[in-house]
Amino acid sequence: MANWWRLWKILFVFTKYRLDSLVPLQQMPLSLRLLLWLAPWRLNPVPSKLSRGERLRLALESLGPIFVKFGQILSTRPDLIPDDIVAELRRLQDDVPPFAEAQAIALIEDQLGRPVSELFAEFSSKPLASASIAQVHAARLHPQVAHDSGQEVVVKVVRPGIENTIERDLQLLETMARLLVKYSADGRRLKPLEVVEDYRHTIYGELDLQIEASNATQLKRNFNGSELLYMPDVYWEFTRSKVMVSERIYGIPVADVAALHAQNTDMKRLAERGVEIFFTQVFRDSFFHADMHPGNIFVSRQHPDQPQYIAIDCGIVGSLTEEDQNYLAMNLLAFFNQDYHQVAQLHIDSGWVPPSTKVHEFAAAIRSVCEPIFDKPLAEISFGQVLIQLFSTARRFNMEVQPQLVLLQKTLLNIEGLGRQLYPQLDLWTTAKPFLERWMRDRFGPKAAWRELKRQLPGWIEKGPQIPGLVHGALSRLNHMDEQQQALQHELAALREDMQQQRQQRRHQALGTTTFISGGFLWWQAMYFGVPDLLGLSVAAAGMIWLVIKA
Length: 551
Hints:
The chain crosses the membrane at residues 534-549. Belongs to the protein kinase superfamily. ADCK protein kinase family. By secondary structure, the chain is α+β, with helices and mostly antiparallel strands. Among the domains are: 2-93, no CATH class; 257-444, no CATH class; 467-550. It contains 22 helices and eleven strands. Strand 2 and strand 3 (134-141) form a beta hairpin.
């Protein structure tokens, strides 16, 4: 019932803001077009005081965090979404209506156990930014509670009661996923339940600010001293599950292209470093910021000729196994080298498509999608469109969705949208290919083998004196296993012989019983007609004697 009530609310919001007017009817089947034309909500007029972008933004805001996240992704795709809608959806990145100051202060005091006036020398009641999950207030640490007294900080507070809304939406998504698995031919291939479960894990990780703080600390450690990315410090003594205090930064929002140009930022270098950061996080660290929409990215005001990124809001991060890293890197390199046969073979080897797939057919299908986009700048490429075409191609070959790669695909779309805003002429292939080649050399080359040898050598030396005993024990176990195998073979042979004897005995018993019954019947028949029958009596006696002997 909760799912149906939530679905009814979604439909109500959909009709209230007349989002059906945003649907491109001319691209839909005739039956669906007729259904939408006859829908009762068309009797409601389209709100004339609101633009279509405002209607979509307000609808997503009223439906809650999961829908706001969807709007944030759309806001980075001006190649897919009209400019007027993108402009409105960008407000979802950090300009969602805030909750009351009194609620924020009460939550801070409850989590940290002290009044705000004792924790902070200054605390701004008006939020610096407000998003779907939390909002951020500016503050200054109180000298009595912090060694770094006077430090400017930001206080992040989770929206009260947001868990209930998220859980209802997740339950609805899970119900829809189950229906998709049950009634859709592509349900199992798309793995919707696994995708929803991954999203559940991700979104609940974002609700726990201690997890976000640990993610930020790990990213800071990974890029310690780097010119590419700076992560603000986290103040752990003032961080709890619903409240996080971190260093305040004064960068330029990455979406403020005019301000970046005003300080003579090297935009080409900035875009290239964004790509390098992404690939470094994915392949070097296997720990990547997976919510890189423009509201979470800033650019340092120092050294505009060598611009440095600043990242915040690390509630969503992703990671890959070594196997997925290797397959993904080899796939991308083969893709950059336009070796589509290798791309197809890697998909089969990794189990992403069935082993019965014909490599040359799959390679030809991939080539037809990817070949037109090479040697083009980012301004002329839409990865969103390419991914849609690739998914359509994969469907023909029964490719299963890989839930562990969904976050990576989302992040790649964010990176593309960011690069499109900063420097549309960016050559993504030229920027990414050398990095992947270096990574592959470092991962599998002689230096990597030597590093692995040095890493393992101390353990081997430590276990060296134990090796003879381990070898002797292994040989003894092998010998014992051989003896056990021989004994098992003898037991199996004895069992087979016993079963053969039992089958033979049953045959004898059947023969004796049949003989006895037949003789008895002949003797009874002869006695019934008053004629002595020595033959029947003899046959019956022979059958009885046979049974006794075999028994």
